[in-house]
Amino acid sequence: MNPYQGQPPYLHNVGFSNTAPQSFGNPMPMPGFPTMGYPTAQPGYPNTGSSYPQSSQGYPQAQGYPQQSQGYSQGYPQHSTGYPSQAYPQSNSAQGYPSAQGYPSAQSAQPAYPQSSGYQQPNQYQGYPSSNVQSHHAYSASPSPVHMPKSKPTVVPVNPFDPREDAAVLRKAMKGFGTDEKSIIQVLTRRSNEQRLRIAFEFKTLYGKDLISDLKSETSGKFEDLLVALMTPLPQFYAKELHDAIAGIGTDEDVLIEVMCTMSNHEIHVIKQAYTAIYGTLLEDDLRGDTSGNFKRLMTSLCMGNRSEDFHVDQSKAREDARSLLQAGELRLGTDESIFNAVLCSRSFPQLAAIFQEYQFLTGHDIDDAIKAEFSGDLEKALRAIVKVVRNKPLFFAERLHKSMKGLGTNDRQLIRIMVTRCEVDLGDIADMFQSKYGETLQSWIEGDCSGHYKKCLLGLLGLY
């Protein structure tokens, strides 16, 4: 019997009213894997200046601790500076944990999707993890890592941040006759998702009104949809997008592919928690009930959130997997989809990049061409999406943005989803890839395809309003 009975209605402002996760930034620790998210500076990280006693503090000598002249000569250094810095090695690569530099500071933090932000050009699999961590994972089995540029978010947490002042600005913008849309756009597009949720909390505290309800009553159309998306906690926004993609008649497989093929393990687990908290059912059950065949198996595998996230690249295993893929596809009559499923859903992204490179060495052509020849339909799209994400995630999203705006009409839902979810991660990189691939700026496409305050708000997320 399903332990989650009933299906509560979806509330846009689930922010501070139920058990759904608020962000990806404070995860439950995953065994054997560094904590993800962007924690604020916490006592206990070396070199933060807030953890260990300063030299003037030391350990008090009058409370039972021996004087320095009577100290333990063999074990404890004769310093009055508290814990010595030598006790904490500068490189922790042997233990598998990044050193202190791998934890972002409060100023540089972008509470978003840390592990998904790193990306690489084709055949540069060493550079997949973000550059501030990868240097601690140079293993002998792989060539020395290439230092890739950091991802470029277009929305970063504002500092200093005063949520009550922002709440007052929004209240003034919506009070009385008319609405000051410019003020609303400038506040909401220049704050991180977590900061927007804090503003909503203070807004209700100060004025006894729900901010999202006020925004909905003062705006309309696509502009309203965009503002509501900005005010929704990211895990719950993803959960709603997945639910709407599989609810009702038909399934929007493109949404399932975009979300399930690009998320890290931790992000998938948090989205699953949010999904169950909002809808009372399991995401895996709903995915399995609405898909079929090998595509259903692929979605189920991805939904487990159990991909290896080891930065180590094993070249011999990559060669072995490349041979397995070749034997399961091009060298046999028919295709053994289970081998492709197993390899592409369980190997780490850096390892997959090495596998694709070995495949090219073995066959003389690209793995993408092989997938196009061996598969069709949604399964082909999903497998090719994984290949693209492994090689260059910003380019994958740039292609999705282009597809949402080309031709007659605009897929506004897809446009809003990518702009809202990537602006704190790598929207700057996506815009660069868009221009390099299509020869026109993302800004010019948005200006040509959208209008009014909706257009201004999208440009605000690009940092251009």
UniProtKB/TrEMBL annotation:
Signal peptide: none annotated. Gene3D superfamilies: Annexin. Transmembrane segments: none annotated. One of its GO terms (cellular component) is plasma membrane. This is Annexin. The keyword Ribosomal protein does not apply. GO terms for molecular function: calcium ion binding; calcium-dependent phospholipid binding; phosphatidylserine binding. It comes from the Eukaryota. It comes from Euphydryas editha. Residues 1-155 are annotated as: Disordered. Belongs to the annexin family. Residues 15-25, 79-110, 132-143 have a biased composition (Polar residues). A pair of annexin repeats may form one binding site for calcium and phospholipid. Keywords: Annexin, Calcium, Calcium/phospholipid-binding, Repeat. Residues 49-78, 113-131 have a biased composition (Low complexity). InterPro entries: Annexin, Annexin_repeat, Annexin_repeat_CS, Annexin_sf. It holds the Pfam family Annexin.
